[in-house]
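Record 1 of the preview.
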Amino acid sequence: MRYGKYCRRTKLKLSGTRLDSKKPSRTFAYGIAVMAYKIIASQCTVCGACEFECPNAAISLKNDIYVINTSQCTQCEGHFDAPQCAVVCPVPDTCVPAKVG
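->
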């Protein structure tokens, strides 16, 4: 198994991911999967519960709305069994997987 910092073809950072994995732990553009969550702004109550639960500090308040930085979000992989933003959010289906592609 090869581990590396950068994918040679796309030159995207692959920090801590397996390059030959059948199930990638992180995903990127150009046919390589991207793993991140997003917050549905129209459903968000701006309670702030998600911001403090994120182990990667990927959630921040921007223009009175919480947003998830997709380059930092790892769906809590390596920290928890489930994405904590979705677990602690009081409004169902507000933190959902982001569609990439």
